[in-house]
Amino acid sequence: MAPARGPTASSLDRYRKKRDFAVTPEPGPSTAQHAAAPSLAFVVQKHWASRLHYDFRLELDGVLMSWAVPKGPCYDPKEKRMAIHVEDHPVDYSGFEGTIPRKQYGAGTVIVWDRGTWAPVGDPKAGMTAGKLVFRLHGEKLAGIWELVRIAKPGDKQEAWLLFKKRDEWARPLAEYDVIKALPDSVTAKPLGSVEEREPRVSNSRDEPQAGIDLSLAVDAPLPAKLEPQRATLASTLPSGDDWITEAKLDGYRMLARVENGRARLFTSSGHDWTKKLATLAAEVEKLRLASGWLDGEIVMLKEGLPSFGALQEAIGGRGNEAIVYFLFDAPYLNGKDLRSVPLWARRAVLAGLVDEAGERIRFSQDFAAPAAQVFEAAASLGLEGLMLKRRDAPYESARTQSWLKAKCRLRQELVICGFTARGGRDGEIGSLLLGYYERGKLHGAGSVGTGWDACTARELWTRLAPLEVDSKPYDVGEPKASRWSRRAAGSERWVRPELVAEVEFAEWTTEGVVRQASFKGLRTDKPARRVVREGGEAVTAAPISKVKVTHPDRVVDRASGVTKIDLVRYYESVAAWILPHLRDRPIAMVRAPTGINGELFFQKHAERTGMPGLTAHDRKLWPGHPALLTIDTAEALLAAAQMNAVEFHTWNSTVRRLGKPDRVVFDLDPGEGVKWGQIQEAAVLVHVLLQELGLEAWLKTSGGKGLHVVVPLAPRLDYEAVKAFSRAFVRHLAKTIPERFSPTSGPGNRIGKVYVDYLRNGMAQTTVAAFSARARPGMGVSIPISWDALPDLKGGAQWTVQTAREYLSFQKQDPWAQYWTTGHSLAAAIKRLK
Fold first, then answer.
1. Domain housing 349
2. Is 312 helix (H, G, I), strand (E, B) or coil?
3. pLDDT value of residue 210
4. Active-site entry in 141, 249, 337, 701
5. I want to staple 822 with a disulfide (CB 3.0 to 4.6 A). Which of 9, 170, 442, 450 is the partner?
6. Residue at which a domain ends, from 377, 402, 427
7. Any idea which of 206-220, 568-582, 790-804 has the lowest mean pLDDT?
8. Using one digit for the tens of pLDDT, what is the confidence trace for 758-814?
9. Average pLDDT score, the chain
10. Does 305 lie in the same domain as 156?
11. pLDDT in tens, 639-661
12. What secondary structure does DSSP assign to 13-71, as a single string?
């Protein structure tokens, strides 16, 4: 047994004396003895105190030796990062995340940026004494050999060291990869798994054995009457090594085929017989050279070569049924042989031979020889749902297993429909669906979804749900706070028996247990509601890798801040997941700065200028008489635009799908000469209060410049003329009611000492800078969404910049705009009240 180890009473004296443990949430020191762990822990904590820095900690002799590293670690051996040796910390501190209160030592917010184990190279105690500590890290972000070298001289007030990467297989130039900017978030909130498993520095060949197919574990057995399918576990990281088979995760319905005496029957994963529904597909299965067996696969509809879940639903309903394709990926039973104990690679090899001569509707689900990380990146860029990863030697088990994993580019799962709201408060069309899931037999609320269907589908959903209506909520457990409706919407919910299941795609599960940025994909008729459970986890996120070559990376974009072109591209790369929901499907206007923001600037709204890979140019018929409109719908397009010197991104108030019907109204609070920041904050509160009195909830963001933006989400029913008329009436009413605070006209001379609330952005083809966009102004401020509760502490409209915004976001636990995406107000009542 390893000897016990613990800190000496004096080793944590400095730590203890600096802190008041009745006030700070930091763990107190302990001299308790702990059994020696098999490995030594390390942690890097990101600490936003008086200034941002990184606390680098290595466990040794029962304490965490600690260094404050202002710039954080870097994989480039040429980068020697200053590291100030500070007091030892308790081992328990390695898991600390939270806020140290004001007036306490180290006041500020702490997150766990990286964690793992470390192994010293040589004697670590001797290394500390000599001032040269060499070690290997095994973390979620950091790996390879590193070195700490003491450079402090006797008498120095601070004990300065240097932290740097040693040259090995993990070393990378800073110009190629900046781990601080690429992976800024907490590994507690977003676990990544071991970087050595995620990005192995070894060959990852997946070639099948050439010596033949090993079926030695096959067993003679009668054909089972029923077969429960093997199910995959949701993964948050990608496994590595050559013992995994990687397939595309197909966006369809799981389907098993049972063949007996040459006749095929098709069953869903829940055991429902769909043979009659898919009679022509069953006939195709019967053409295989198979007397008896069970085949496992997925049925899909292909549109332009890619699976389409919506098209599959229509086909199952009878429209285009004969175009459904059955992708087979496993064969647990074939021709009197039970193959469930046979390794997966061998089962698939037999299946591939069986399907080889099948028609176009029966296909083999191919696997990919490339490393999983590369395949995942390609799948994400193609818009696929994700990957399936299966151990090569795994048996077939009728259960959810760890030998089958599913890695999703974007989270997606079934959720129970528990209620609905009517569109516009009128019967006939669904406005939103209220969702839930089962846990230990109890139904929990999971938030709502209000997008993803057209008017026809909204009517069909109404027809399906109205007969199921009940008087009370079906939830066994109370709804989470984040799913509760605004005061105006309260009472508009209508509840149903929890019998129908919706397929929903979403960005993440919030800390309150609701889906964020959800989109409806369709009803699932192949799965009973009682079997719907929360899968949890997160969409897999590979480390961001620029898909564009950045030319002139060192060109200074802003002289005031020193921001370079590569800084700007990396910023947009790091916030792609945040900004894309605000850009996607909206006509765009970009401010481009070919020589930097101090040079000539110009707007680009159409495709007639230099082309950018990935941007979507829409049919001119969309807006007759005008050049083609552009949209930025992918991270690739965003980075291509940044590479072509686009600094600002402005968007229409409508999407290309409903170009003439805005789905938001924006009020830009623009200060006149002599207006102080406190007056702008007060103006925002007054605008918010008046909107609430009109029954409208609003969301707030900084402009990235001098002011603030107040945004009201709308149901896209009225045209631009009507929405602009409302915004004009609102501003005039505001200025008439409080003339000493607001000006209704835009001229500089008309708003000295007042705030002008700009309504002109609500006209056709007018744009507003998107949330998370940088501004082409000295300092390069960024437009950032905030909560109304955060307004009093805001210091200005450009409080966050290209250099600080992403770091700020890494400390945020909740999305202040989470409910924005599922809210769509009608202006009818508000317009009447303003008249």
1. 219-402
2. helix
3. 30
4. 249
5. 450
6. 402
7. 206-220
8. 999 999 999 999 999 999 999 999 999 999 999 999 999 999 999 999 999 999 888
9. 88
10. no
11. 999 999 999 999 999 999 899 99
12. HHHHHT--TTT--SPPP----EEPPSSEEEEEEEEESSSEEEEEEEEETTEEEEEEETT
Tokens of 107: 């006041």
Sorted by sequence, the CB contacts under 8 Å of residue 449 that are 6+ apart come out as: 432, 433, 435, 502, 504, 506, 515, 518, 519, 520, 822
- 132 counts as catalytic: no
The 3-class SS string of 475-505 reads CCCCCCHHHCCCCCCCCCCEEECCCCEEEEE
Place of tokens 């719908």: 633
Flag whether 138 is in a domain. Answer: yes
Is the pTM value of this prediction over 0.85?
A: no
Residue 274 lies in a domain: yes
Q: Which residues 6+ apart lie within 8 Å of 341 measured at CB?
A: 217, 218, 219, 395, 396
CA–CA gap between residue 689 and residue 697 (Å, rounded)? 9
Domain boundary among 512, 531, 550: 531
Is residue 420 over pLDDT 90? yes
Residue with tokens 């299966």: 390
For residue 321, give the CATH number of its domain.
3.30.470.30
Q: Looking at the structure, tell me whether residues 154 and 277 fall in a common domain.
A: no
Question: Do residue 371 and residue 223 come from a single domain?
Answer: yes
| CATH code of residue 495 | 2.40.50.140
CB 438 within 8 A of CB 530: yes
> Do residues 363 and 325 make contact, with C-beta atoms less than 8 angstroms apart?
yes
**Residues 548, 290: contact at Cβ < 8 Å?**
no
Are 490 and 344 part of one and the same domain?
A: no
